[in-house]
Amino acid sequence: MDLTADLLLNALVSGLLLGGFYAAVTVGISMSFGILDIVNIAHPGFIIVGSYVAYILNARFGLDPVLIGVVALPFFYVLGAATYQTYHVSFERRGQEALRSLAFFFGLLFITEVVLILVFGVDYRYVSAPYIDKSYTFGLIQLPMRMVVPCVMSLLMLVLLQLFLTRTFLGRAIMAVAQDQQALRLMAADPIKIKRIAFAISIATCSLAGAFLIIIQPVEPSIGREYIGRVFAICVLGGLGSLPGTLIGAMLLGIVESFTATLYGPSWAPAISFGLLLLTLAVRPAGLMGR
Amino acid sequence: MRAPAFFAAAIGTAILIFIVGCLIGNDYLFFAGYTVVQFVVLASAWNILGGYCGYVNFGTAAFFALGAYTSVFFHKTFPLPIPVLLAIAALVSGLVGLGTGYLTLRLRGAFFSIATLALAVVLQTFVVNWDYVGGSRGAYVIRPNSVGVFGFELDYVRYLCLIMLLLAAVAVAIARTIERSKLGYGFATIRDDELAAEASGVPTLKLKLIATTLSGALMGMAGAPFPYYIGYVEPASTFGLPYAVNSIAMPLIGGTTIWFGPLIGSILLGVLTQLATVTISSAVNLLLVGALLVGFVIVAPNGLVGLVQQFLRIASPGRPDVRSTGLVAVAGFGFIVGLFDVVFNLAALLASDVSGEAIATAGLVLAALWLVSSYGLMTIRRGSPLLATVAFGLSILLAVVHIWIDRSLGNVALWGVGVAVAIGAIWFLQRRHVQELYQPRLGQPEVAA
Amino acid sequence: MSPLLQAKGLGKRFGGFVALDGIDLDVAEGERLGLIGPNGSGKSTLVNCLCGTLANETGTVTFEGRVLDGLPAHSRTRLGLARSFQLPRPFVSMSVAENLKVPLLYAVDSRAHGHLTPAQTNERCEELLGLVGLVDCAHKYPRDLTQVDMRKLELARAMAAEPKLLIADEAMAGLSHSEVSDIVALLIRLNERGTTVILIEHIMRAVMHFSQRLAVLVSGKKIADGRPEEVIRDPEVERAYLGQ
User: Fold this and answer.
1) What is the 3-state secondary structure (H, E, C) of A81-127?
2) Among C residues 158-187, those touching chain B with beta carbons less than 8 Å apart
3) Residue A270 falls within a domain, yes or no?
4) Nearest CB partner across the interface for B293, out of A103, A222, A281
């Protein structure tokens, strides 16, 4: 293979675009794991559900997938709140978190995958939208719209979320609940309610992330598993709970995956994120940004 | 019972089961039985790290597949007898377990769990890209027809079952030995409070590494005979998620703190799985397992053993009396019947026409009644004896219908026994001594569910 | 004579917050040291750093002349440095007696001449139970214990490691007047048998009665260290901790 500048440049751009999307996928975990300390490994499962929701509504009504993602936000929010409530009543209150909650979320991930297989089968599903097949070329660089649109939308979502967390009272309460629940109580805010809201928001992001995913690539139920490694690799790389860190980690991963796919072929891609995760955990668990 | 005696008893039991199986002579029994016994090993192995130490391993498939692919590799290079393959698989998987542990066990438990998931995917990717063992296309492993063991010619599948039975006996015996030893105390402190364990002088990292290595080695040994059993090995199913889910669900449902918890869970779930896969589909079976896992984790976190222990603590502290033994038997019976009823009726529901659907739905309702009443009996909820009585009463009706439909001797005998059991149970549940356990009394401790 | 435990320039930060700012502390063998200070002054952080639960960033800790830096907590316990936790952390799946067996099996048994037979382990366990007054609770589980008994268990478990130096971190919080006296008497008895004790407490009556020497920690710095009667009259101590 000729390592032309063209090839490498496009690999880089692809990686950045992919990274933007990965950030959207990860931001929910950054909140639930980084801020709330809940290891929600079912998160990718919720994202795949989001993809299928986009698929159904797109196939039935021809709606734009991003629009579907936005419209479905409240439903995912409610789903997230219900999940947190179950988690809280079953585990947080009893103080038996570690083993049981991991098994709980793992069970949820598993159940969502199996239900999707039962309902939709294992065929790949995709959405159609006017911009998906378009691609613009600037000099050497190709910009496929099916990657640009999700990336731009992801960045927008990230910015909005960051503003929410740092500028609004509720957002700052969420950041605070990670640090000191007692102080929060003294401020007459109910920490459980705050945590529920934060978790619900993290699941709501899955609605959009799922829509973005199915724009970028066709989806089938077991894809969620690949994303577990990616998501946690990014979290650990970027430092838990830091949204800017998540973006940087996501970009890094996107670039590394993109280059690997270009140079060695896509079948090695899953190993990259998971391998990177293992490496980071072994060497520098606090991540690049630290906490 | 001291450790060496238990080892001998376990091996003896395994051999006995094998001999009984040979006498029954049904080949399907061996095929299906192999899977169940394999899960006994996987569940017991998982529990050493998960139940005893509290560290959740999502990568059972990784260690299992390592064992399997080690066999594939040697089969292509230089075929070796199974016992040797077992030893090599133990070494390979054990080392990988040690390595993974060393890299990640100094971090929080959650990171370790994620790392095990990562390990499974990384290993799968390597195998997919390694053509020598078949890559993604898979590898065929032709097994010999039979093998000579101590002068007997054994059919190869039966030979594999014997190996697996012996391995299961060893795994269970190891678990029990650890549990009652100094090592077991150390593991329990790690599970309860790692910080306090360290402060009490427990070398937590060393113990966790021991657990991970042992657990991984046993899982690898379970995987070594697999290619010969199944004949065709490919990465997608060998590294499949069902291994992870089952090896977590079985100990959690059975009970994680004691050696017979995983045993009970794996036998129960293993048989259920075989049944569901055959009568419905493997996808629905997986759904059932997942639902059971989530259900138990929420409702009965200490598993069946935990439920019974909790019940006995309140109903008869000290030695179990007749009343509590009877209640455990009734609840156990109801639970098992309920579970199997769910599977049978689901199968009927999915397979039949409208009238069949009505009956199947009714059957599912009855199954739910069984499960709820059994749970209620063990958690001492008011009204549970009544609920259980209703369930047994309805089942008598059902038995009568079955006898009416098919009056062959075998059928009448089978359902007749069921009716007798049901009548006995109903009588037992109405006794005052039993009823008063479920009346609220002042000062009676609330069972925290 | 060189001190049993010596901390030199101990420092620890959490992000931007300085928990310990260059602490120097010497503890002589056989002494009874009291450590007081307002909440958040770094007392528990100090204990954590001394015992290895947390890693200090600057400074050194020496025990019996041996540098402890880098040694994990369990090794320090085996060397003879034990602590009880401020909020009791019992092993919930084990009975009270079994809780006490853990340090006997893992700390005491691993020492050079410490090997215990099962009979000896049981014997020492019984002795400890008698010492703290938990004989009736031997087969109870931590979830069924009263607050008081939980604190006694916490202390007893630390004592089970047969330490040369025991750090009791606020072991008496929430206890009644007579219970406090009991614990103080217990610790003094322990000291008379040769164990050096560091007592961290808020209950001034107990601290004054117990301590041969008193140190005061405020905002991560040691502001006083000397004879108890003199330390409590120190104006800086009065201002920072005792109130006027």
Assistant:
1) HHHHHHHHHHHHCCCCHHHHHHHHHHHHHHHHHHHHHHHHCCCCECC
2) 158, 160-161
3) no
4) A103
CB within 8 Å: B202 and C82: no
Phi/psi of residue C18, each to 5°? Answer: -90, 110
Provide the residue ranges of all domains of chain B, joining segments of one domain with +: 3-255, 303-437
* pLDDT digit string (tens) for chain B, length 449 residues: 788 999 999 999 999 999 998 888 888 889 899 999 999 999 999 999 999 999 999 999 999 999 999 999 998 888 888 899 999 999 999 999 999 888 888 777 788 888 888 888 888 888 888 888 888 888 888 888 888 877 778 888 889 999 999 999 999 999 999 998 999 999 999 999 999 999 999 999 999 999 999 999 999 999 999 999 998 998 988 888 889 999 999 999 999 989 999 999 999 999 999 989 888 888 889 999 999 999 999 998 889 999 999 899 888 887 888 888 888 999 999 999 899 989 988 888 887 777 778 778 888 898 999 999 999 999 888 888 888 899 899 888 888 887 887 788 888 888 888 888 889 889 888 888 888 888 876 555 555 44
| CB-CB neighbors (< 8 A) of B205 in chain C | 72
Does domain B3-255 fall into CATH 3.30.300? no
3-state secondary structure of B54: coil
Contacts of A100 in chain B (CB under 8 A): 297, 301
- B203:C103 CB<8 A: no
Q: How many CB atoms lie within 10 A of CB B171?
A: 28
Q: Residue A81: which domain range?
A: 23-223
Residue A5 in any domain: the answer is no
Residue A78 covered by a domain: yes
Domains within chain C, CATH numbers bracketed = 5-242 (3.40.50.300)
Q: Where are the alpha helices (DSSP H) in B224-353?
A: 226-230, 235-238, 241-254, 260-279, 282-299, 303-315, 322-351
Q: How many CB atoms sit inside 10 A of residue B144's CB?
A: 9
